[in-house]
Amino acid sequence: MLFISLTDSCCDHSTNIQSYEGGSVSISCVYNSQYRNNLKYICRGKQPSTCLQQALITSDNKRKGRFRLTDDKVSRKFTVSITSLTQEDSGSYLCGVHRNTGLDVFSAAELEVKGQRSQIYQTILH
Fold it and tell me: Is the dihedral of CA 88, 93, 98, 104 positive or negative?
């Protein structure tokens, strides 16, 4: 007997990113040259099948609340910036590139938002 399990999950590995409450973070997503003009987007979670419908931001709408998407078509990388981070922003994210045929292409990121930096550390930075 052969059992095939189809799971709605993505990506062999994910990029780990850390930041602090109140700070900002950038999630970079690389894509192949043939997708230069395709729609790019990012969503929370690890489910490719619902990612586009639940997109936090897309390349059609480059600014949305605390999110901003920039697409560098020369280096084939789009970047999503998130500002005013809270610990609720921690978790899994999927970068998606929409394809007209077949499944969209995804890469994964794990974001960890830590508590605010100590007052002493913030004073040194300013």
Answer: negative
| Interstrand relation of 25-30 and 40-44 (parallel, antiparallel or unpaired) | unpaired
For 42-45, the CB contacts below 8 A with 24+ separation are 42/67, 42/69, 42/80, 42/93, 42/94, 42/95, 42/96, 43/93, 43/94, 43/96, 44/91, 44/92, 44/93, 44/94, 45/91, 45/92, 45/93, 45/94
Taking only the tens place, the pLDDT of each residue in 47-106 is: 999 999 999 999 999 999 999 999 999 999 999 999 999 999 999 999 999 998 888 999
Which of the listed CATH numbers 1.20.1510.10, 2.40.10.10, 2.60.40.10, 1.10.3720.10 matches domain 14-125?
Answer: 2.60.40.10
Q: How far apart are CA 91 and CA 113, in angstroms?
A: 9
Phi and psi torsions of 71, nearest 5°: -125, 115
**More reliable by pLDDT, 80 or 122:** 80
Give the pair of three-digit tokens for residue 51.
Answer: 């990612």
Residue entry with tokens 């809270």: 86
